[in-house]
TrEMBL record:
(6S)-NADPHX binds at residues 56-60, 125-131, 157, 258, 318, 361, 427. The gene is nnrD. This is Bifunctional NAD(P)H-hydrate repair enzyme. One of its GO terms (molecular function) is ADP-dependent NAD(P)H-hydrate dehydratase activity. InterPro entries: Carbohydrate_kinase_pred_CS, CARKD, Nnr, Ribokinase-like, YjeF_N_dom, YjeF_N_dom_sf. PANTHER family: ATP-DEPENDENT (S)-NAD(P)H-HYDRATE DEHYDRATASE, ATP-DEPENDENT (S)-NAD(P)H-HYDRATE DEHYDRATASE FAMILY MEMBER. It comes from Deinococcus marmoris. Its cofactor is Mg(2+); K(+). Catalyzes the epimerization of the S- and R-forms of NAD(P)HX, a damaged form of NAD(P)H that is a result of enzymatic or heat-dependent hydration. This is a prerequisite for the S-specific NAD(P)H-hydrate dehydratase to allow the repair of both epimers of NAD(P)HX. Bifunctional enzyme that catalyzes the epimerization of the S- and R-forms of NAD(P)HX and the dehydration of the S-form of NAD(P)HX at the expense of ADP, which is converted to AMP. This allows the repair of both epimers of NAD(P)HX, a damaged form of NAD(P)H that is a result of enzymatic or heat-dependent hydration.
Length: 497
């Protein structure tokens, strides 16, 4: 099932629908219970210290404390005063079952932290409005010092002090080992330094009408089953001519490996026939890859067109200074096209078509949008949306994780591995995407499926290579990643499919 991504405003609008129906109390109960379960499952040792702020985030902490007590766990609760009716109600409920609530201040925190096995941070959630007030800043400093000394922290919904809608970390915030977030992931749970501060993030969807959440969602995060159904299935009579003919147009003296890596990626993602067209000598990365060296693009492109177009083309990888002119010609062919690297130029805006897949990394995205790279990485969902509006077709804004933006959906990929931060990984992805386009997927489906396939291959390759991962290792695992995704569907017969 897809998971959703929510803005703080979207979460508040869902709250506003729950409250008059009397359902906010139940949502808080479920949220607090999910936190208690996570504490028991992941941090079973020692007393649990729960910190409750004045808002609903603090209410979740008080509910969690009650559930932990009921499970027999030693709990210690420090709370700020609250005007929030449900938070006050849950403070009374906690007391009613014998739980003690003491005021939160620096000395009570230091004392309790010294004997705690886990701290639950329920100080600030999506209602936080920066900047952090000094009194809470001092609390978070003590908390982070205790964390540095080895005390684990689980944050409720979002680490206190983080702006949920932003991947950057502007000021002081809690450094969590784990975050239990509700209804949908927040931008801060998924991207950048904010995601690092969130630790391992798990989603408690809460029993809220899914249409209420879907209606507010900024985007979705498909699971592997949803990706698996997008991957093409061949009939027994398939042959190389029906499995997708792909051209790679790229390479230039000095950067010709980029085109070769794309070719390898396309072969390993199932393309039937792959030819690299280049002005430079392409290294023989594998004999199955066909190579045509041309002397100049002005002659080569009309000849190629006349020779019969392939099912899909990927262009730009290491293509060099002529990339924009070449891209204009290739776009006029009107066939499924991946545009990467040197072909990602603002001059091409308006020249695309619905079967285009544009694959910028944040630096290229910034060049296309005429902004700085930090603006792109601060809010990758917004940047991907703007890129799609500028370029049309489908945009893959690459990163860990990548965002796939089509006209009607924003989708965030799961997985990948930090070992994928090495040159050539994006070239491999371009080949993968072209192979999927060549096998008949729409640009939007190829974007979602190709990015996850590439990320899964990266995860598998990292088992052997860790941070020493190189792009051709990822290509080598594409077949295994494909099988893996299909098996998650549970309908894959490895002998015949
Ligand atoms: N449907 C859902 O998603 C559900 C969401 N749920 C939960 O609700 C949470 C959102 O709750 P929320 O709206 O009450 O806000 P919350 O984060 O507790 O913050 C408000 C408190 O912070 C304070 N404060 C603010 N800024 C500050 C600053 N700069 N520096 C210092 N303090 C500052 C502010 O103080 P005040 O301004 O009132 O003085 C007030 O006390 C959400 O994250 C999730 O945990 C669940 O209960 C179940 C259903
Ligand atoms: N930390 C990471 N986690 C997951 N994927 C990553 C990470 N770092 C890089 N990648 C992936 O590697 C690829 C890098 O692309 P790009 O920067 O264009 O590489 P190149 O231009 O060297 O080919 C992207 O698909 C990106 O999603």
């Amino acid at each position: 099932m897809s998971e959703f991504i929510l803005s703080p405003e979207g979460a508040r609008r869902v709250d506003a629908r729950l409250e008059p129906a009397g359902l906010l109390d139940l949502a808080m109960e479920e949220a607090g219970r999910a936190v208690a379960d996570a504490v028991q499952a992941s941090f079973p040792e020692g007393p649990a210290l729960l910190l409750a702020g004045g808002g609903a985030n603090g209410g979740d902490a008080l509910v969690a404390a009650r559930h932990l007590l009921a499970l027999g766990r030693a709990v210690h609760v420090l709370a700020q005063p609250s005007k929030h009716p449900l938070t006050r109600l849950n403070r009374r409920r906690l007391r009613a079952v014998g739980g003690e609530v003491q005021p939160l201040n620096l000395s009570s925190l230091r004392r309790a932290a010294a004997s705690a096995g886990i701290v639950v941070d329920g100080l600030l959630g999506t209602g936080f409005v920066p900047p952090l007030r000094p009194a809470l800043a001092a609390v978070i400093e003590v908390l982070n010092a205790a964390h540095d000394a080895g005390l684990p922290i689980l944050s409720i919904d979002i680490p206190s002090g983080l702006d949920a809608s932003c991947a950057d970390v502007a000021g002081l915030s809690v450094r969590a080992d784990m975050t239990v977030t509700f209804m949908g992931f927040k931008t801060a749970s998924l991207f950048g330094e904010a995601a690092t501060r969130s630790g391992r993030v798990t989603l408690a969807p809460l029993r809220v009408p899914p249409d209420w959440v879907r209606g507010e969602a900024l985007g979705i995060r498909p699971d592997d089953l949803e990706v698996a159904v997008l991957l093409p299935v061949r009939t027994a009579s398939a042959h190389k001519g029906t499995a997708g003919r792909v051209w790679i147009v790229g390479g230039h003296p000095g950067t010709v490996g980029a085109a070769a890596l794309a070719g390898l990626g396309a072969l390993r993602a199932g393309a039937g026939l792959v030819t690299v067209h280049s002005l430079a000598d392409v290294p023989l990365v594998t004999p199955e890859l066909m190579v045509q060296r041309h002397t100049n693009w002005d002659h080569a492109l009309p000849e190629l067109r006349a020779s019969g177009l392939p099912d899909a083309v990927a262009l730009g990888m290491g293509l060099g200074p002529q990339a924009v002119g070449v891209a204009r010609e290739v776009l006029a062919w009107g066939i499924p096209t991946v545009l990467d690297a040197d072909a990602l130029h603002p001059e091409l805006a308006g020249h695309g078509h619905p079967q285009c897949l544009w694959t910028p990394h944040p630096g290229e995205a910034a060049r296309l949008l005429g902004m700085g790279t930090p603006e792109v990485t601060r809010d990758p969902l917004a940047a991907a949306r703007r890129l799609q509006e500028l370029l049309g077709g489908t945009v893959v804004l690459k990163g860990g994780p990548s965002v796939v933006a089509s006209a009607d959906t924003l989708s965030v990929s799961r997985g990948g591995h930090p070992g994928m931060a090495s040159g050539g990984m994006g070239d491999t992805l371009s080949g993968v995407l072209a192979a999927l386009l060549g096998q008949g997927l729409s640009a939007a489906d190829a974007g979602v499926a190709g990015v996850r396939l590439h990320a899964r291959a990266g995860e598998l390759a990292a088992r052997a290579h860790g941070y020493g991962l190189i792009a051709s290792d990822v290509s080598d695992e594409l077949g295994a990643a494909w099988l893996d995704l299909k098996q998650s569907w549970g309908q894959f017969d490895t002998d015949s499919d």
